[in-house]
Amino acid sequence: MSERETWATRAGFILAAVGSAVGLGNIWQFPFKTAEFGGATFLVVYLVAVFGIGLPAMLAEFVVGRKSNLNTIGAFERIGYRNWRFVGVLGLLTGFWILSYYSVVGGWVLRYVGGSLTGAYFGDAQGYFGAISAGPEAIALHAVFMALVVGIVAFGIQDGIEKATKLMVPSILAILVALAVWAFTLPGATPGYAYFLSPDLSQLRLTVDTTPSFPWLTFGGPLAAIIPFAVSQAFFSLSLGMGAMITYASYIDGDESLFGDSATIVVFNTAIGILAGLVVIPLLFAQGVEPGSGGAGALFISVASAFADIPFGRVVGVVFFLVVLVAALSSAISLLEVVVSYAIDNYPVSRPQVAVGLGSAIFTLGLPSAWDTAWLTWFDTLAYQLLLPASVLGILVFVGWVFGRPGVEELLRGTGFGDGVGSLWLWLVRTVVFLGVVLTLALGLLTLFG
Ligand code: PHE
Ligand code: NA
Question: What is the CATH number of the domain that holds 350?
């Protein structure tokens, strides 16, 4: 095995991790799931999940990655727990599954860059989305997007991933701020802000009833429907439960505060999601679109028809979708990197070979989603209600109960914090965070099969 790669700089790691986190999850999924699941109530649960569950869980993944310096499956073995490799396998499969349809949506974004340039969607935004989002054209776009991802990953972490993400973060922030300011000036935007930002506290209700028959428990109240999507949205958005953060942390060479790095990543990621919501949700209201009616297409249809209405709409459209494209690419590379990293750590294969082979397999798995958006929705639902919470739960149980103290020591390395901070984290992972994910998984499964 050749010398394992590392990040060139600490900033390189943070940028790449931000690049992984910030993606379609922020700009596409987050606004549309928020609109679908009750606006501000969803936002409240999401924020609690991001900071209360996502942040400690991200630290857990960083600990496993940096401690082992190995891919997401080998990591468990190297730190002494061969039998826990299944957690890595679950993450790897979750990433594989998600990338298959993520790439389909990436293909739509690619198409919208061109569509903005030529003004193709200006007359009929709804019809345009319908035409390009499913069927042969969507398959072709999915192929092109996947080819781009494979191309970047084939170049390796320093030349490919580190460089590709450097430009993304500043440009995405700038363009979202400008669009949010513009959305603010739209007539009719105000009810959008109310929907997005002022929670109806009476909605924060969860009831539990026991029943004599299987499944023995039933849940009620608005939160029963919101929690599985809001918490899983936090995982999806923070790139947790897919081995991505384990893999990226495994390339860290040296001591640095994992607290500082994770706080930066979480804050950036949340800010960009909220900014995207401040663009998309007022837009929906200004156009009189019922929130929650748009589904997966909401972002594309509403944003595109807004661009058709404004001066320089083509230029704005091209810039906007290009930025979304870069964000989607930097996330997709991290998903492919998880599997590629595993393969090159274990088999005598070259990086480009594996990137092409696995990229083709993921492309194939994405074919149903590209053929019909109903499949895409199904793939997405299964990821949210089952795969993501199950995979994060596996990591938490491992780090909390099995790995224990050595994990705390690894977490504290390079921080200057006393043991109290580490012990608090371990306690949280074992209690609040653990229970939150168990509840999410239970609610997800009950809605899936109930
Ligand atoms: N976090 C990314 C997003 O919000 C998606 C992603 C998930 C990327 C998992 C890598 C791993 O778009
Ligand atoms: Na994200």
Answer: 1.10.4160
CA of 18 to the centre of ligand 2 (A): 8
ipTM of the complex: 0.97
Number of C-beta neighbours around residue 420 at 10 A:
8
Q: Within the chain, how many helices (H) and strands (E) appear?
A: 24, 2
Q: Is 4 within the bounds of a domain?
A: no
First vs last C-alpha separation in the chain: 48
Can you give the residue range of the structural domain that contains 27?
10-449
pLDDT in tens, the chain (450 residues): 456 778 777 887 888 888 899 999 999 889 888 888 889 999 999 999 999 999 999 999 999 999 988 888 988 999 888 999 999 999 999 999 999 999 999 999 999 999 999 999 988 888 999 999 999 999 999 999 999 999 988 887 666 566 666 777 777 888 889 889 988 988 878 988 988 998 888 888 888 888 777 777 778 888 888 998 899 999 999 999 999 999 889 988 878 889 999 999 999 999 999 999 998 888 888 887 777 666 778 778 888 888 888 788 898 889 889 889 988 998 998 899 888 888 988 899 998 999 999 999 999 999 999 999 999 999 999 999 999 999 999 999 999 999 999 999 999 998 888 889 999 999 999 999 999 999 999 999 988 876
- On whether the CB atoms of residues 108 and 300 are closer than 8 A, the answer is yes
Residue 208, strand partner residues? 219
Contact 23 CB / ligand 1 (< 6 Å) = yes
Ligand 1 pocket, 30 CB below 6 A? no
Q: Which two tokens stand for residue 38?
A: 């009750």
Render the burial of 85-115: b for 16+ CB within 10 Å, e for the rest.
eebbbbbbebbbbbbbbbbbbbbbbbbbbeb
User: What pTM was computed for the model?
Assistant: 0.92
Query: Could you tell me the two tokens for 373?
Result: 């958006």
Give domain status of residue 147, yes or no. yes
As a whole number of angstroms, the distance between CA 291 and CA 35 comes to 5
- C-alpha to C-alpha distance for 366 and 268, rounded to whole angstroms: 29
Residue of 100, 101, 165, 239 to mutate, ligand 1, most atoms within 8 A of C-beta? 239
Report the separation in Å between the CA atom of 418 and the middle of ligand 2, taken as the mean of its atom positions: 31
| Residue 3 is assigned to a structural domain of this protein | no
Looking at the structure of the chain, the number of domains it has is 1
- 431 within a domain of the structure (yes/no): yes
